[in-house]
């Protein structure tokens, strides 16, 4: 094996249910976009809240810039080095400046809408204030993107 | 600067097939210009060289002839590997290909037919599947034109080497003609229509025994074209003068009714992308959680009104080509009947809705346990039963349609249709698809006339079977050939 291959192991994808808020670009996951909200301007940049999910959980995802126009419901997105943290008081997953969101397919990914990790109240870990733990379920599913009936 | 194979939007990942081909091309590019090296490559070198040449053919049109000459010189496997990558490109990437690459793809397909490449039949089938029904866009009509041109110009060789593919092409073009003969004012459609008609008529007139291999769905497709003069005369011969087709032993249209159509034909009218989404829906999505998937599917494939006709092909695909395992049947995955029920509610034009119902019941009206599969007729009965009481209008309209078929599908051969339907009903209860038909025959919400007719069908069957037990000497298919009102039915 060449040295550089050992240096950069292939990124393993996390199931969404395992992601925890942190001030780090440490999220690698594959999920499907379920719904998109209205595009708004944050300064000169477009931003748009979306609902994404995989087979284990759902979460709110913040689209940024052209991502708002390019990604559509039904798109399968691969997120590398994304960040799950509070942005203006909302807990959202996003690519951030250092991460990347890419469309890798359409339709063929199973998902659940419960739990929604953005609808969980997190609190600092009692022994390690840098880590978060789940404290309470605010809502079983997104209160912004209500599941269709 | 190396040219691109596919159109890619920002934030879209690169395609692995494109990466592999381009890398092979970039590494081997110096060797792709004459004089070509005479060394015999290793196995790995051989596949890489195939990939590199293919990339060159597709992305460097001005060099294509040089590349193809090179290809002919190095081939040692009958083009098997080369064709297999082409098939993969068509199945997985066709819709995204750059226009000039599509042109090259058709050009190299002609080359593969000319050299009788191993697997070129699969390549032709893959291309046929990329033609989208009801899509009158320039690109799609161009592909129709190229394919009908290819099948017509290479007729003799295809007939000798891959006759089944020709029968598949007949299935495809007959189905496309149903759409192409319905529209006006679309540039170039008239000349395309003429070519498609010429190809189909030639197949039917010169190679009818091959056409017969399609089975009963050939009749279903021809029925939609009865208003087209060229097909009207074929209909007349089918009904009144079957010997005109010069096939020994073909004496009556009922022989076509009796042949179940292979699932292979139904796949020809579903694009691979549509197939994979439908199969995903029917194997992975839980009943109750399908809403979003249905919205996405409809947005992609059914949004343009003219393209909604594909629901007919989808119903044939679901009934005949997607048979779930027992494990799936007993799970909480969305059942086939529910997907068909959704399509039926999808704001369809009257003739599309009627054709959808015909597609749903088509194996009922000729059902014969010796040749037919219970899974093909299962969705219709479950849809009728499970729509009670909430969607009673569906049950009602399906039963009504079934009786319309019984009375009118083929007035001269009513006995066949009646026997088919009652045999189907019995098979469905005997095999436990439904516990009993009481849920229909004793349903207060259904018209008494329907219930009475249903009861009669069931008792007729018992009577018929007692008779057959007593005398085993009933001639098979002993129905006289005479006139039929099918023509007037379908042209109405």
TrEMBL record, chain A:
Keywords: DNA-binding. This is SOSS complex subunit B homolog. It comes from the Eukaryota. SUPFAM superfamilies: Nucleic acid-binding proteins. Gene3D superfamilies: Nucleic acid-binding proteins. GO terms for molecular function: DNA binding. The lineage of its organism: Eukaryota, Viridiplantae, Streptophyta, Embryophyta, Tracheophyta. InterPro entries: NA-bd_OB-fold (IPR012340), SOSS-B (IPR051231). The keyword Amino-acid biosynthesis does not apply. GO terms for cellular component: chromosome; SOSS complex. GO terms for biological process: double-strand break repair via homologous recombination; mitotic G2/M transition checkpoint; response to ionizing radiation.
From TrEMBL, chain B:
InterPro entries: INTS3, INTS3_N. One of its GO terms (cellular component) is cytoplasm. It comes from the Eukaryota. Residues 474-485 have a biased composition (Low complexity). Residues 470-492 are annotated as: Disordered. Pfam families: Ints3_N (PF10189). Residues 46-453 form the Integrator complex subunit 3 N-terminal domain. This is Integrator complex subunit 3 isoform X1. It comes from Sesamum indicum. The gene is LOC105155866.
